[in-house]
Amino acid sequence: MRPLIVIANWKLNGNLKSNQDWVQVVCRGMEKGMPAGRKYVVCPPFPYLAQCADLIQNCSAAFLSLGAQDVSRHETGAFTGEVSAAMLKEFACAYVIVGHSERRQMHGESDGLIAEKALQALDHGVTPVICVGETADERNSGREVEIVRSQVAKLVSVLQDRLADCLIAYEPVWAIGTGKVASAQVAQDMHRVIRLQLAEFDEDVASHVGILYGGSVKPDNAVELFAMPDIDGGLIGGASLDPQEFLAICQA
Ligand code: PEP
């Protein structure tokens, strides 16, 4: 059985005070009891990892883990502004998001670079959450399956059976931050496409890999999405900034 995983991606949001309030509200909510067999992760901006690691450590509900929003493909060296997987590990990061569409679009990240970042994370015991997904134009021209399959093909060719230790997040770009959530069936259909593609490589890998949905998930649509057989949780942007909304999604 694959566990259900819900990940909060704060993006470029947060400050010392609001982070503290957020973790306190979420921890108190989780201490009241959460559905069994689930995992929850919060991904703050880099400067707040140490603060959030401390806050989470003081939370008696051992449900919440820490993640980062990006990682360098390099181990160490002259790469100004980059943060390595080893550094993330030192700050208790168990997960890292790679290949988010905002990084693909605004920073020109390629499938090859994203796969290299995932390898770095794996080499340091950090689970990569690798984002894939088509744009509105690609879906409107009927190319969504071709696009997502080509993104997944690169991951398979570089990561091979190490994919079993990764998470994949299907995030249709047209649904991110737009309020236009994919219907549960549309999301399930693409998750199935991804799982079948992984099975073409290795059935064991396909059955192990958690495939999360991301794109305008809210408490009221999470129940239906998470009930789908190939949807193993969610990557939550906007709605994760409000701790009560995030909690409600975690309980969905
Ligand atoms: C995201 O940024 O990964 C995301 C899914 O954002 P939102 O939930 O705001 O659509």
From TrEMBL:
Gene3D superfamilies: Aldolase class I (3.20.20.70). GO terms for molecular function: triose-phosphate isomerase activity. Its EC number is 5.3.1.1. It is an enzyme of class 5 (isomerase). CDD domains: TIM. SUPFAM superfamilies: Triosephosphate isomerase (TIM). It is found in: Cytoplasm. Homodimer. PANTHER family: TRIOSEPHOSPHATE ISOMERASE. Involved in the gluconeogenesis. Catalyzes stereospecifically the conversion of dihydroxyacetone phosphate (DHAP) to D-glyceraldehyde-3-phosphate (G3P). This is Triosephosphate isomerase.
